[in-house]
Amino acid sequence: MYRGRLWTMRQYSGFGDASQTNQRFRYLLDQGQTGLSVAFDLPTQLGYDSDHPLSAGEVGRVGVAVSTVADLAELFDEIPLDKVSTSMTINATAPVLLAMYVVLAKRNGVDISLLKGTVQNDIMKEYLARGNYVFPVQPSIRLTIDLWEYCARHLPKWNFVSISGYHIREAGATAVQELAFTFADALCYVQAALERGMEIDAFAPRISFFFGAHNRLLEEAAKFRAARRIWARIMKERYKAKNPKSWMLRFHTQTCGSTLTAQQPENNIVRVTLQALASVLGGTQSLHTNSFDEALALPSEKASTVALRTQQILACESGLTETIDPLGGSYYVESLTNRIESDVLKLIGEIESQGGAVGCLENGFMRMKIEESAFQAQKRMEEGQEKVIGVNAFEMDEKARIDLSKVSEELEARRIETLKKYRSKRDDARLKEALAALSEASRGDGNLMPFIIQSIETKATLGEICDTLRGVFGTYDQ
Hints:
By secondary structure, this protein is α/β, with parallel strands linked by helices. The protein has a single domain (8-382), classed as TIM Barrel (Alpha-Beta Barrel). The protein has 20 helices and ten strands. It has helices at 18-30, 42-45, 69-75, 94-107, 124-130, 137-154, 166-170, 175-196, 200-203, 217-238, 244-247, 267-281, 301-317, 331-353, 356-363, 365-382, 411-424, 428-442, 449-457, 462-473, and strands at 8-10, 12-13, 36-39, 85-89, 116-119, 158-159, 161-164, 207-213, 251-255, 286-288. The strands form two sheets. It has a five-stranded parallel sheet with strand order 1-10-9-8-7. Helix 3 (69-75) packs across helix 4 (94-107), helix 8 (175-196) crosses helix 14 (331-353) and helix 12 crosses helix 13. The radius of gyration is 22 Å and the shape is globular.
């Protein structure tokens, strides 16, 4: 009997031009990829339309620019939304982007209960490590749980959160800190959902996680094994979850961009392979492999294809899918797993003694730990204690000769013109009425998702919706 498992293969597509990303989506689907992942540009993540003054120079630079549901329609043109699994890297504005996806599905005649995918929707790590926040902490947590509640009712196949250790690790955290801080954030969300009146077994099976993978193969595999045990213990012992699916740690892994080098970039193919191998050995259900040129630019088509082929070789040629937990029983891996689990639980205890994730956000405890770890790692590299091939060991004078992906200088002007035309074809009275209703609802304590969806149906832009919420909640200023 077959006892192995496969993972969903993902390759991020993040170009400023929605039509170009759509072409990449179609290409990846033709290549046999089973999931689509999209990263959005900085203005979209921060709740600004492409024509906002603060968006100048940033439109489409680090991802797709999406200001309207029409932009999202261009992005997913001729993509069957009920047949694909879509992962969206979006946090502060996650409710708006998911609402756009729902509106688009309805317009395309798709039953929204069939939609599959994940929205990151993890605002706590933005305050801690990434910086793409909009509103103050408590309103942001409210919006996070609004999205959970909406999905629990209407999108049974959708993962409404991907609690992210990846960005914490990229900021400089150790493997132990990555798990401890991620689970501390998870406990914050779970408690908020319970206080909302949601039942643990009604929402826990849809919680997902997002971790990073570094180069230390066995440590990373042990980290994932420890993470699975910790989450099962938390769900069973602390929250008394009865559904076995609530105990499962379902997680996506991405190989870590911070480990990639601009020097000798082809070496990154080997690094990514090691990190992907660790992820699979550790039991990941979904995997993204970075492209070898990402230390230099957004991924080129060639580099993205190599990254995808890396996963396909692991899946089809390595035999890794023929067994579950292939490292189980190894003395070293088991002892390493036990040590990581113990250290993580100890650190979680420290966090909870200081008021949990929110308390440690306010007193700076977790950020201080990350900064110290990042400093020590950089110091070890600069002093030669840790070798990085091509950087402080086996250097070469030869410059990289690879074709880099470039974002068109004309993109911003095109997006602004498109947005201008979109606004000119709206019923302003209906739009103002919908935004006024959203503003009023924001002053209460009800779920805001229906009001956000209603606003999008009247052609409100992302920026207009976020400005409405800013008018009530204010912004986070640290």
